[in-house]
Amino acid sequence: MFSNDATESAEIQAQITIGINYYGTKLISSHLLPLIRRDGRIVNVCSSLGVMKKRYSEERIKQLTTAKTMEEIDKFVEEYKRHAKDNTRKDGGFPESAYQVSKSAEIALTLLQAKELEAKGVTVNACCPGYVATDMTQHKGYLTVEKGADTPVYLATDPNPPNASFVYQRKVTNWY
């Protein structure tokens, strides 16, 4: 979405990036989740940049990892957007990067959806495909598209996948 040398303000970057990565996932999910059959699978492609450790204050980590409703996740991203507007992201306990915040929120959303769909037998996971050579990485990634697809495909097709997890290179990874 934005390169490191982007000229757009932090406020604009936050609005657009969070709008696409978090609110976009939330919106499309609200339309698709009712269509998922019993024992279905949902795999949200996130990023290891959504891992919170050392990027957020302990208060912010607790706020997001204990969120029990989408409204609580919404509050988290809206607080980030306010801090981006005021250019006080670090003081507010957030990283500078809107992309990182959007992916942390997307992971939290995914894990909340997993809890909500557990009774229906739906498996829901978030994953990181790795640093893939695509237009988004200006083809600097060290993984081919095929290798990047490995973990999402594994989560969608393996007979015994994890559930309610963040997965990187087929391994459940702590995201906070």
Name of the CATH class: Alpha Beta
- CATH superfamily label: NAD(P)-binding Rossmann-like Domain
User: What coarse outline follows from CA principal-axis ratios?
Assistant: globular
> Main beta sheet: strand number and arrangement?
4 strands, mixed
Count of the domains: 1
Amino- and carboxy-terminal Cα gap: 24 Å
* Coarse structural class: alpha/beta
CATH architecture: 3-Layer(aba) Sandwich
Instruction: Write down the overall mean pLDDT.
Output: 94
The string of secondary-structure elements, in order, is HEHHHEHHEE
Low-confidence stretches: none
* DSSP strand tally: 4
What is the count of helical runs? 6
Instruction: Write down the Rg.
Output: 16 Å
- Strand order, sheet with most strands: 1-2-3-4
- Assembly annotation: single chain
Measured as a percent range, the helix fraction is: 40-55%
CATH topology: Rossmann fold
Strand content: 5-15%
Summarize the structure.
The chain is an alpha/beta fold. It has helices at residues 10-32, 58-65, 70-86, 98-117, 145-148, 150-157; strands at residues 41-45, 123-128, 165-168, 171-172. Helix content is 45%, strand content 10%.
Topology:
Blueprint: H1 10-32, E1 41-45, H2 58-65, H3 70-86, H4 98-117, E2 123-128, H5 145-148, H6 150-157, E3 165-168, E4 171-172
Parallel strand pairs: 1-2, 2-3
Antiparallel strand pairs: 3-4
